[in-house]
Amino acid sequence: MDERILIVDDEKDMLVLLKRIIEEKTNHIVETEYDPLKVVELLRKHQFNIIITDLKMPKMDGMAILDRVKNIQPYAIVVIMTAYATIETAIEAIRKGAFDYISKPFRKERILMTIDKAMEWQKLTQENITLRNSLKQKKGFPPIIGSSPSIMSITKMIAQVAKSTATVLISGESGTGKELVAKAIHYHSNRKNKPFITVNCTAMPEQIMESELFGHVKGSFTGAWKDKRGIVQEADQGTLFLDEIGELNMAMQAKLLRLLQEGEYKPVGGLTIKQVDIRFVVATNQDLKKLIEAKQFREDLYYRLNVINLHLPPLRDRKEDISILAHHFLKKFNFLNDKKISDIAPEAISALMSKSWPGNIRELENCIERGVILCRSDTIKIPDILPQEPVAHTSPLFDHNIYTLPFKEAKEIIIKSFHNKYINWILQQNNGNISKAAEQAELQRQYLHRLIKEENINTEIFK
Ligand SMILES: Nc1ncnc2c1ncn2[C@@H]1O[C@H](COP(=O)(O)OP(=O)(O)OP(=O)(O)O)[C@@H](O)[C@H]1O
Ligand SMILES: [Mg+2]
């Protein structure tokens, strides 16, 4: 990418000279401006790597330019030049964030060297910023959101168990946050600067699993053309998260038991026993006790794993968390999609709370993501998150309790219910277009309109 330099000086000759010097010796794009009052506008238009500015200018001085640059383009580098060099002004400029200070008249080499140094410095700081951000992502982990008593007690448990090295068994339905909790345990532990490694026990066939976990020595099987370190060794000093532990086959269960009991393992084809120091966290959405009864899971391994049990309740049992989670995901997906949706409508929250969420928090997260993407206003409304499900016309119009009511009352309820279901259906078929719906239903438009009003149906949600 070409670097861009802006030179500001009220002496036009100086601008021409500097531009020529820089363009002769570098590939940088040089722009010049003799009116300091126009600098702000330029800074808003283009990103500059370096701004070289004169100090004394009639309308606005170099210090003020430095201020503007720091506000508008904090990563741009400012170099100040002046014929009135005093040590005081130099110090003042550097203190305010200038990169360097050049006294006029200067030699060609001096200016070129300063530019080189500035570019180099900028590259380094940029790399540093990227590095810091990626470290932040690795080190930090998404917060555990929720204020229900069950989530509160889980967060408390995490804090308590994190500092120990005891094995933790996390159970719960799919999407309840098992992996999130496993990470939280690791990042709250003294091992937080060591690796956190996840192994999904379903994903790998038996032989591959063994060599992936424990590594192998060269020549131990066809294709083992050199020694390979296993995941277990990579996780030494850190935390190993074994996900879907209920899927682990019996042979691997025996090997895992040894690793848990003694901290020992043998690479495939190896003769020497290796020792590691690993904290284990395992997760399952199966009932391990049932697997033990079915002789698919070793009982001794179960007791080794189940030192501390954290059970994550399904979302339907902690509905009070739905609103706070939904708002949390709104923020997340606003950020990821560069959107500025400010809220979720109260009726949309009520609708979310009335659902049963078989896919738990993951399902809610996907639902809000969809809402953020579809939403065209500043508030997420019901149709953005819960698209109208087709009204089944085979569904019974009324249940048998209706017969216990007096005839007139029962008839009114049934007619009302019929109106409501029919109108919803016909509007949905016609994307909320009342004229088209009336035509299809062979009704007068005005009559349909009146029914819609009576039933208090919002046609917008079908659009
Ligand atoms: N309490 C919570 N606060 C915020 N986000 C959560 C919470 N619980 C779960 N999530 C989010 O929901 C999603 C699913 O969570 P996670 O992957 O940890 O579930 P899981 O129990 O491991 O699911 P599975 O059994 O399907 O693997 C993730 O994106 C996670 O960050
Ligand atoms: Mg998981």
From TrEMBL:
Transmembrane segments: none annotated. It holds the Pfam family Response_reg. It comes from the Bacteria. The modification 4-aspartylphosphate is found at residue 54. Residues 144-373 form the Sigma-54 factor interaction domain. Residues 4-119 form the Response regulatory domain. InterPro entries: AAA+_ATPase, AAA_lid_NorR, CheY-like_superfamily, Homeodomain-like_sf, P-loop_NTPase, Sig_transdc_resp-reg_receiver, Sigma_54_int, Sigma_54_int_dom_ATP-bd_1. GO terms for biological process: phosphorelay signal transduction system; regulation of DNA-templated transcription. The keyword ATP-binding applies. GO terms for molecular function: ATP binding. PANTHER family: TRANSCRIPTIONAL REGULATORY PROTEIN. This is Sigma-54-dependent Fis family transcriptional regulator. It comes from Candidatus Desulfaltia bathyphila.
